[in-house]
Amino acid sequence: MFELWTTVFAICLIIGLFLFSPWSPDVIMSAGVGVLLLGGVIKVEQAFLGFANGGLLTVAVLYIVVAGLQSGGGIAWVAKLVLGSPKTESRALARLLYPVMMLSAFMNNTPVVAMLMPVVMDWCERLKFNAARFLLPLSYATILGGMCTLIGTSTNLIVAGLVEKQGLPQLGMFDLTLVGLPCALVGVAYLVILGPRLLPQRQSQSGNNQRKYWSGLQLGNEFPWLGYFPQATPLAPYLQRDEALTAGEVFWLELDQEQLASLLEVQGITPVQGIARGPWVEVILGAECPFLAPHWSAKAFSQRYGLLPIGLTTAQTAPQKGDRLLAVELDNRAQAHQHEWVLVQRHKGQPPHPGKMAWISLGILLGMIALAASGILSMLEASLAASAGLLLTRCIRAGQAREAMDWPVLIAIGLSFALAEGITSSGLDVFLAKHLMSFGGGDPWLALAQLFLATALMTEVLTNNAAAVLMFPIGLSLAQQLGVSQTPFIFCVMIAASCAFNTPVGYQTNLMVYGPGGYKMGDYLKIGIPLSCIVGVVALTLLPILVPF
Questions:
Q1: Cis before residue 294, ω within 30 degrees of 0?
Q2: Please, how many CA atoms are within 13 Å of residue 438, restricted to the half-sphere of its CB?
Q3: Which of 123, 284, 302, 505 has the fewest CB atoms within 10 Å around its CB?
C-alpha cells in the first residue's frame, strides 16, 4: 500500500503544481517522477524508458516536418485562396473551419493557428467581419481536427506509444478516424451554426481596434519641431504640456501599432531601444522567460530572442509573467526558446507567394501520409523519411531543424511515461478501476462514460498529454476487469484528452487567440462546455457501435 499512496501523492503534487506554480510542464513532471523514484515505486531505468518510446520520437521528428512546411509559406497562401469572399458569417466560418480541421488532422495545431491567425484577421477586416467571431472557432477547429488521425496531435502519438509498450496491436494512421472524424464534423457544425450566436460582437484587435502599448520615444537633433510646444507638432494627439520640446527628451506614450508606426515615420523620432527593421510581432511572456521583473533588460531580451521590444504593457515597468509585448522581429533566434514565450500575432507581413520549396514541402507531407497510411512504413519511419527529404531538398536547414524542437514539451512527455509506469507498478490502476466498476455496476458503457468524464476534467487541469498518460492505464484496467475489448477505452482516452475547450490555458492555441480576439473567460465557458458535451455524446454513442466491446 505504501507504493500506491506514494503514487497518489506524486499525482496530487503534479496536479497542485500545474494549478498553483509558475513552473513549466517538464519541471513539474520531473518533481512527480522524483517522488516515484524516492518512494521506490519505479526504478531509474523505468523513469527514462519513455525517451526511447516510438511515440515520443515521432512527435520530435514531426516538429521538423512542420517547421519545413511553415518556412515555405505555402499553407498560409493556399488558405487565402480557399477562404474567398463569402457574404455571411456562417458561410465564412464554414469556409474557414472545415479546411482547417482537415489540415490539423495532419499537422500540429500550434503552427496551424500561428500561420493562419494573421491571414484570418486580414480576411475579416477586408470582409467587414468581427474577427472575435472567428479566432476562437479557429483554435477549436484545430483541436477537433487533431482527433481525426494518429498524427493529428501529440496526445494520440503518446497513447499509440503506450499501446505499443503494452504489446497490444499497433494503431494505424486512420484507426481513430472512425470515431474522431464524426466528432470533429459535428463539433465544427456546432461552431458554424451556433458560434456566431454564442460569441459576442466584442472588439477584436484587427483593423482599427488594436491593443495599445506604452512605447518610449526619443527626440533627436534632426527633429524639425525642436523648440516648439507639442500642440504644434505631430505629437499633439498624444502629448499635452506647456513646455517646448528639446533634443534628447524621452516620452512614454500609449499607442496602438498604427499610431506608433506613423510617429516613427517622422524624422527625429526613434524608439528608446534603438532603430530596427523587420515585421512586428506581439508575444506573451511565459513563466520560463528569464527577463521577467526584476530581471528585465531590453538589450538582453533582444540578444536572446532576436526581438527588439518597442511596446510594453505598462509604462517604464518591467514585464511580468503573462504580459504582452510588441517587438520588432530581427531574426529567428526566438524559435530556439519557444517554451519561454507565445507568439500571438505577426503584423506588417503577408504570407509570401509560395516558391518551389513550398510545393516540395507540401509534396513531402503528402508522401509521408501515404506511406504511413498504406502500412509500407511505420509512422516513425515515414516521419524520419519526410524530415530527411526536407533537409536534402533544402526546404529546411539543419539549424532550423534543431531550433524547431520544443525540448521542454518533449522532456515532459518522456517523463510522463514514468508516471504511467508508477500507476501500473503500484496497482493504482487496478484500485481505481475496481471503484469505477462499482459505480457503473459492471456496465461497460457506463465505465466508458466515467473514463471520458474523468479524462476530460484532467485535461483542463493538466496538459492533454499528461491527462492521457494518467488515464491510459486506468482505462486498460477497466477493460480487463470488465472482460471486454480495450480498444474502445483507448480511443475514449485519446478523444477525451483533446477536449480542452473550456479555458484559455487549456490548450496553447486557446491562449494564442485570447488577446487578439478580445475574449473573456466566460466566452470559453459559454462555447466550450457545450462543445465538450457534444463531442462526448457523439464519441460515447459511436464507440460501442463502431468499436464493439
A1: yes
A2: 6
A3: 505
pLDDT digits (tens, 9 = 90+) for 61-80: 888 887 777 666 556 666 66
Instruction: Provide φ and ψ at 188, rounded to 5°.
Output: -70, -40
What sign for the dihedral angle of Cα 250, 254, 256, 258?
A: negative
Q: Residue 455 has which C-alpha cell?
A: 479524462
The letter for the amino acid at 3 is E
Burial class (CB in 10 A: 0-12, 13-18, 19+), 224: exposed
What string of DSSP letters covers 172-194?
Answer: PTTTTHHHHHHHHHHHHHHHHHH
pTM: 0.71
CA 36 – CA 10 distance, rounded (Å):
7
> Which residue is it, cell 510594453?
312
Element at 284 (helix H, strand E): strand 280-285
Residue-wise pLDDT for 122-178, tens only, equals 788 778 888 888 889 999 999 999 999 888 888 888 888 888 888 888 888 888 999
Scanning 147-290, the segments in alpha helix (DSSP H) are 154-165, 177-198, 257-264
**In this structure, what are the phi and psi dihedrals at residue 88, rounded to the nearest 5 degrees?**
-120, 160
Please write down the HEC assignment for all residues of 445-495. HHHHHHHHHHHHHHHHHCCHHHHHHHHHHHHHHHHHHHCCCCHHHHHHHHH
Give start and end residues of each alpha helix (H) in 246-333.
257-264, 298-305
Where do we find the cell 468524464?
Answer: 453
The residue assigned the cell 515597468 is: 317
The answer to whether the Cα torsion of 99, 101, 106, 111 is positive or negative is: positive
Residue 371, C-beta contacts closer than 8 angstroms, at least 6 positions apart: 377, 381, 382, 385
d(CA 536, CA 549): 18
DSSP 359: H
Give φ, ψ of 287 to 5 degrees.
Answer: -65, -25
Domains of the chain: which residue ranges?
56-206+352-407, 213-347
Closest alpha carbon to 143 in 488, 457, 522, 494: 494
Three-class DSSP category at 514: helix
Q: For residue 90, what are the contacts with CB-CB under 8 A and spacing of at least 6?
A: 192, 193, 196
